[in-house]
Amino acid sequence: MDSPTLSSAAVKAAAATVGFDACGIAAATPLTEAEWGYAEWLHNGYHADMVYMEQHRDMRANPALLLPGAQSVIVLLLGYKPSRRMEGTARIAQYAYGEDYHERIKRMLYQLIAAIRQQLPDFEAKPCVDTVPISDKQWARRAGLGWIGRNTLLINPTLGSYCNIGELVTTSPTDHYDTPLESRCSDCQACIDACPNQALTQTAHTGIPLLDATRCASYHTVENRSPQLPPTVHLSGYAFGCDCCQIACPYNQEAAVRYTLTDERKTQLEDLAQADSATFRHITKHTALNRIRHQQWLRNQSAANARE
Ligand code: SF4
Ligand code: SF4
């Protein structure tokens, strides 16, 4: 039986009702190296010790290997720009201030599936939010939701790069596919200049932005499990993630605020600098900070203070 054809307008209306900030739809034809630069990124060792990034390369490029018969990738954005930033000596990247986006977006993706099924009961889709090998930023670009900036992130005209991404890979075709946007970075390179670690680079011949994770403070404070961080990495006061290249971006300065950082939450986050293990675990439960252990937090904090 053929999968039902989606109305692009109806899917976008349902996505807005569920609470997503933006929705675009791409045809599920495989990504090419020419638009992606992934093989060069791996070849250069820019993935550091994230060996899982070497696995499922075909699947990352081809949604039909995730869901047989995939026709479309519905991409959803959820903005997270906070109303203000936390202060203190152990700063946390802004995406981690609120509820863990994995949990929130997953819940919303299931709500969206349910909403679409009210119109099309045979709608089949696989929800993805960092849980399966799929290149979120590239599918968001393909779905017309923005371009890949020189900070290597998706830049949405309204949300800037302060947005998390989720997808529904579906066997349904749609009556309209969105068109990718041209880059609007122009001759700006504020993010490159703002990076304290020279971690932002590009493919040799095609100029596709690439992140060298071996140099990136965000990689080291979140993914690196070694007892010590490399002494050459500058943390700029961050003990979890790093926002330097995002704060510098003019599109983020103009971006819509999507999260209110209350006095109570701000104090809680700033007090994490003194938290013992149990308090750290309690406060970071259901946040992206839950990804690191308290030992990593102490390691990062000590390095952030020493290298301020
Ligand atoms: S997150 Fe920080 S270290 Fe990484 S590329 Fe951006 S500015 Fe550089
Ligand atoms: S800072 Fe400038 S170059 Fe970097 S992503 Fe933003 S607009 Fe593009």
Structure description:
The radius of gyration is 20 Å and the shape is globular. It has helices at residues 8-18, 33-36, 38-43, 57-61, 101-119, 136-142, 190-194, 217-222, 244-247, 250-253, 263-271, 277-284, 294-306, and strands at residues 22-27, 72-79, 91-92, 125-128, 147-148, 154-155, 163-170, 200-202, 209-211, 238-240. It is α+β, with helices and mostly antiparallel strands. The chain is 33% helix and 13% strand. It contains 13 helices and ten strands. It folds into two domains: 8-84 and 95-170, no CATH class; 190-306, no CATH class. It binds iron/sulfur cluster (2 copies). One iron/sulfur cluster binds next to helix 7 and helix 10.
Radius of gyration: 20 Å
**Main sheet makeup:** 4 strands, antiparallel
Beta-strand residue fraction: 5-15%
**Order of adjacent strands in the largest pleated sheet:** 1-2-7-4
Q: Please mark out the parts with pLDDT under 50 across 5 or more consecutive residues, or reply none.
A: none
Number of helical regions: 13
The tally of strands reads 10
Question: What is the typical, i.e. mean, pLDDT?
Answer: 95
Bound molecules: iron/sulfur cluster
Total number of domains: 2
Structural class by secondary-structure content: alpha+beta
String of helices and strands: HEHHHEEHEHEEEHEEHEHHHHH
Give the oligomeric state: single chain
Give the N-terminus to C-terminus distance in angstroms.
61 Å
| Helix share, percent | 25-40%
Broad shape: globular
